[in-house]
Records
---
Amino acid sequence: MIEQALVFVENLAFVSALRNSTFMYPLVNAGHIFGVALLVGGIVPLDLRLLGLWRHYPVMVFVDVLRVTAALGLAMAVVCGALLFATAASDYAGSQLFQAKMVLVLLGVANALILGRVLRRLDIRSLPMTAVMPVSLRGGALLSLVVWVGVLVLGRLLGYF
Amino acid sequence: MPQLRFIYLLRFAVLAAFLAAPAVQAHHGWAWATDEEFEITGTIQSVRLGNPHGEVTIDVDGEDWVVEVGQPWRNDRAGLSKEMLSEGREITVHGHRSAKEGERLVKAERIVIDGKNHDLYPDRDS
């Protein structure tokens, strides 16, 4: 049943066209990397600020800007990634590296959503500028850092194993 | 002064890149394969063509070998069509085998079908 669905996806006309294309496949690949770059490039400084680096810069500058760019990057990575997945759906679905990567992505998204709620509830906007962040935020930031770097590493390993 | 430090980092990066360049150029093989020329002949069992590269499984005396062929444009340029790389065809592969002990995987540089050469990497010796 699942196997049939995966083969059906692989055989969709636009997926076949992408698999056999000259320029579209590398361009979609570039889009995926661009998305990951935006995502990780936003998440790392944001998490480091929450963990206590750059405490002389207002935390909300990091939160308000980098959360948006990271979310945009995630959206782009998901869309392009889904297209890449479709070109070899059965192979990817059967790969343990891919499965582990998807679990980490879901964990990362869930953690980010929870962190967003905690940020609002704790009203960190009104904390003094150099204040140490509450422990729940620091924990979430550390988890986020580990998870998203893990996603990046697993994604790259996927191409080689 | 952070700007000054950034310039130093940049200079260091450029210098490192120049130092590393000859080492990269000196390497001619495929990272995961042996440098030795390799040749193998077999009958095609199954094929998966497309990006990022095609995979052709051939039967060689009862053992399955996986042959990595090119991405679509490279196969086209070498004159390799879907029909030529289909089940039951006999092909001879010139290239490099995996450096991993016991792994039956070949990176194809040139493929011979019906006595005709199909060069995937015309700039390489194969």
---
Amino acid sequence: MKKILLLILFLAGIAAVELSAQAGPERVQALRVAFITKSLELTPEEAQVFWPIYNNYQDKRDSCRKALNEKKRLLKEQKESLSDADYLRIANEELKIRQREVQIAQEQQTALLKVLSPKKVALLYVAEEEFKKELIRILTEDNNSGKGGKK
Amino acid sequence: MRVLLVIVIILGSHLVYANKDSSKVVKPGIPKHFIRPAFSWSLYATGERPAIGNRPALNNKLGEYRYLQSVWSFYTPLYTKAKFSADSSSLNTFHLLATFNSVIDRPEFLGLSEQHRLYKTGIGLRAIAGLGKNLVLFADATPMIFGDAYDRANTRVLRWGATFAANFLVNPGLSFRFGVTRSFLFGNKNFLPMIGMRIGKLDGLVYFNIQLPRTVSLHIQPTEKFAFTIYSRTQGGLYNFSNKDSLYLGNDDVIQFGQTGIANGIRFDFRPGPNFNFFASGGFAVRNRIWFYSYSYNRANDLRPLAPFYEAKPQGTIFVHVGLSWRFGKSKNAQGNYLMYEIYDMNNSNDPGDNNTMPGNGDIRRSAKAKEMHKVKLEDVGDLIQETDLY
């Protein structure tokens, strides 16, 4: 009986931790799939070839974004202890990451043009922007109406 | 003891992740694998009823019968290769995984003074290839040590299970599966054909899956956190069994015990976050069979090795089945990639070590609708938004 109680407590603990865990990136990905598929009016055949390519470059873009965030964190936390040489190195690294982002976008466009029409590739940029704006709009509305989550 | 071990592993991994030096820039990389390592555990137990078989003396000796099974399994990716075809129209992937499983089976015959704890432990290799837009190939081989804790020295034996299967994805809502399996699920050593079909998207609201000879199931996933399944699955195994109770009257130290049945039930899945999913299930165990075999008797009488000297058909009874899966680490993004979903499904529906516990597709996220955007919180999108997006 004690063992069962311990197990139940353990599982309840896990569930509680999981409920507060960051499911956000996963959720945003799922919403992005829904939004872009609808915006670009992707057929099932197009979607089947589009998403593996898009995800591949999305992983690379995420990596760049995380690297930029790490630099921001370093600059914020170590502001007092960094030398001018450190600042210059960090600034140069930031520039390199941004150049890499452009390169990734170019590679993605080349790959997508092999499987989608130029119109849909061009509209992808619009859909990505619209997706972000829609998220911002909803978050702003929630914030104003007091419905938002942790702010 | 096992619960404690899992607690130590979970706490240990959290400590490793938490113990970062904040003064260093951690260079984020791209995850190497599409499949995250996963632990699964499940416990299955039936009610008790008489084991009425073809030998009255043995029926009296065995008495009432009930069955308990605890299964631990683990898989982890070892190597992943992903390459686009020359025209970029498809992503070919190859996944090599290591698998581990540990099973304790307790066929409890209440007429015996000592109960037998039958065990099975195996480490195996699994390869999955996603080719082109439609095809997934799956191969799994697991050598396993079987025995009876009642008399470990005399009952230990090595056996292996294997599965080879091909899955053809016609479209996201329809797939076919064919293959062969070397399995002990039917209480004997069998080479069986596999044939299957799924109707409905794996990330959709409803899908129906028939994968013979293992499962038939109807899945309903109303939200990202909850799912229900109505299912019928094969449940069984073949084990070495100590003859210390003299169930067989010859001089054998070890005999073989086989049991099988079909568990028809309803299952409730709860997935509170991205890493864990729990399930609880109940129903009726029907078409139950148990057998005892003696190699020495069958050899002496020129019978096939696994011809039973005792066969019983215990009545149908209720069962409960509970379990959890824990996935950890990061994986490459596979959202919207239905061929990758097929890979996840094949990996999850073929349990390591010839078990059939249905640990669930915790790594396939339920598809979202644009109207669900209000569920997103500000901290979820912090990385996505730049100041230029605001004007």
